[in-house]
């Protein structure tokens, strides 16, 4: 019988951008729900802190420091995980970069390339690497984190918004490709205004206490991961 306090017991989850903010909070929440969590991010120290918190709370995790912008590293990560686990039950695509908030004519070509490399190309590489493990799972799940500017363009947010719009299209196209040939399901979550480092950079004058903590988003992601949602599901966390 399933323990209601551990709805994800026995499942393996990989979360990107897990060293801080929403990623770290989600990693801790997934572990509390019973999942074995594989944490990846560039910052080894941050990952170690999250892992220590998970273990202190009685959970289990594995850290895998990685710069997702180095897409050959994503393939190596996929091979390493496939060598240890036969399936991947949950993939949370959280890592992203904001880039500069600037008018479209002022875009720097190198920065455009950099933002799209992490926010789009790296996400495609992750889907490529983990597609076999997700398909092998009894009920593989992918949850991608987006932003309202992907669907509602805003002045000076064109770079980030365009990358997130491309990310959503990529993820939903994949969802349609696997819809009738696997049990993999895909959901997209817009966290809304949340107390993160990226938010502080975008809104430097904002009182952090005026927006919700990352834990609120993490709770919703865990609830979604444990539910039987329809592929293509979209929601915004209020």
Write a concise synopsis of the structure shown:
The chain has helices at about 20-30, 45-55, 70-85, 110-135, 160-180, 195-200, 215-225; strands at about 10-15, 35-40, 60-65, 90-95, 140-145, 185-190, 235.
SSE layout:
Layout: E1 12-16, H1 21-32, E2 36-40, H2 44-56, E3 60-63, H3 71-84, E4 90-93, H4 109-136, E5 141-145, H5 158-178, E6 185-190, H6 197-202, H7 214-225, E7 233-236
Parallel strand pairs: 1-2, 1-4, 2-3, 4-5, 5-6, 6-7
Helix pairs in contact: 1-2, 1-7, 3-4, 4-5
3D architecture notes:
By secondary structure, this protein is an alpha/beta fold. The protein has one domain: Rossmann fold. Helix content is 45%, strand content 14%. The chain is built from seven helices and seven strands, in the order βαβαβαβαβαβααβ. It has helices spanning 21-32, 44-56, 71-84, 109-136, 158-178, 197-202, 214-225; strands at residues 12-16, 36-40, 60-63, 90-93, 141-145, 185-190, 233-236. It has a seven-stranded parallel beta sheet, sandwiched between helices. Strand 1, helix 1 and strand 2 form a beta-alpha-beta unit. Helix 1 (21-32) packs across helix 7 (214-225). The radius of gyration is 17 Å and the shape is globular. The mean pLDDT is 97.
